[in-house]
Amino acid sequence: MAQYETVIGLEVHVELKTNTKIFCHSSTRFGGDPNTHVCPVCLGLPGVLPVLNKKVVEYATRVGLALKCSIAQYSKFDRKNYYYPDLPKNYQISQYDLPLAERGYLDIDTEEGIKRIGITRVHMEEDAGKLVHQGTISTTPYSLVDYNRTGVPLIEIVSEPDMRTPEEARAYLEKLKAIIQYTGISDCKMEEGSLRCDANVSIRPVGSDELGTKTEIKNMNSFRSLQRALRYEVERQVEALEEGGGIIQETRTWDEAKGITLSMRSKEEAHDYRYFPDPDLVPMVIDPDWVEEIRASLPELPDRRKERYVADYGLPAYDASVITATKELADYFEECLAGYPNAKAASNWVMGDLSRLLNAGNLDISQCPIKPDQLAGLLKLMDNGTISGKIAKTVFEEMFETGKDPDLIVREKGLVQISDEGAISTAVDDVLAANPKVAEDFRTGKEKALGFLVGQVMKVTRGKANPEMVNKMLKEKIK
């Protein structure tokens, strides 16, 4: 492996969350009975004409600007011709030589520091339908076609071949997803196909400037799948070259269960699609003033938000990166700060216990049963001494399970922290009387003995005693 360098470029398809499709008024809503979100236009019936949805152009421009691209003042649509059962017209309306946006970039974090990945182009196109595999008839497999997705607006974001490891490719896709979500043009739900990724990968001898023969891995819909597929494909290509064989330029698919890529078909070239300008759609002339209006409406993007969290809240760069990785999580964090201004304490809970429970339940932050103001309320209860940090974790688990407010849970379960000196003194005396040998060990310099005694006091008080008072009182009484 050390003799070869990996070259990776990604093509990312993003479904835009417009209400209607790119060239007709049919709904883009996910789901629904098969072939119910369709009309004569998206079904490609004879005599129909497409009409461009302006919102699609606006959304594509937003992404182009967020990725630092140049927006073309003159752009057009082309017909990409190929046959597939879920493509009703036998061509796809896309963009070829005059895309909407070109020459952008985004920066990713790597072990060597920040690396800039070039964006070749961002163009608009329509989505195809979906084959639904039904089973077999007399041992013959068969599928049905659902055209609901046909004509849903897509943007395709094509990177430069600037990535050198599967880890860099994953970081790029994660960062790209975050930027897209911040712009508000797509929900990027990979499990629903709103964001899909094709990877072009090749290898070449270290030090060479010539690109090797590439393969394309189609339609990966998770970060983990992308990383695993690239690792496998690089190893497969290295093994093929080491055994004296060659690499065939082809399209491959990723088998998640088997952990391998499989050949689908020979890789098509641009001329195979017989591109030509769509005669039913006039070219677009983009008003520069309109582009500037869109630029002015862009929200604060992940990198800028991260910088603000470090500068204004004093968060470590790592914390800021994790929290700003998704807009929803960053919004949740800021809502929590509105009721509890200690940013580091809040980030610890968001990145720690909250993320742990969300991951265990396979939930995203939008499905979190704990509201930001409820988390702020829990942190306040800790700060004012009402509950200890240990009890707070118990309360937090209950909040996540029930959605109840923290102060209500504390009252219902009688979890108010004991800070009365007399009550704590009695508990400490009882523990010291029962453990004279341990107390003597601490007196002679065995620091770990104190931890055992604290634990015994907390056990006697059912975890309610103020830990700081317990520590202080134990030390004083032993001395």
Question: In brief, what are we looking at here?
Answer:
This protein has 479 residues and is of the alpha+beta class.
Please supply descriptive tags for the structure shown above.
Arc Repressor Mutant, subunit A, 15 helices, 40% helix, 3 domains, three-stranded antiparallel β-sheet, alpha+beta, 479 residues, elongated, nine-stranded mixed β-sheet
Write up what this structure looks like.
This protein has 479 residues and is of the alpha+beta class. It folds into 3 domains: 215 residues, no CATH class; 114 residues, no CATH class; 58 residues, Arc Repressor Mutant, subunit A, CATH 1.10.10.410. Helices cover 40% and strands 22% of the residues. It has 15 helices and 16 strands. It has a 9-stranded mixed sheet. Strands 5-4-15 form a 3-stranded antiparallel sheet, with no helix packed on it. Helix 7 crosses helix 9, helix 12 packs across helix 14 and helix 12 crosses helix 15. The radius of gyration is 29 Å and the shape is elongated. The termini are far apart. The model has no long low-confidence stretch (mean pLDDT 90).
Q: SSE layout and pairings?
A:
Layout: E1 4-15, H1 54-66, E2 70-71, E3 74-75, E4 78-81, E5 91-94, E6 101-110, E7 113-126, E8 130-137, E9 140-146, E10 153-159, H2 166-183, E11 195-205, E12 215-220, H3 223-242, E13 250-255, E14 260-266, E15 276-277, E16 284-285, H4 288-296, H5 302-313, H6 317-323, H7 327-339, H8 343-360, H9 372-383, H10 389-402, H11 406-413, H12 421-434, H13 436-443, H14 448-460, H15 467-478
Parallel strand pairs: 12-13
Antiparallel strand pairs: 1-10, 1-11, 2-6, 3-16, 4-5, 4-15, 6-7, 7-10, 8-9, 11-12, 13-14
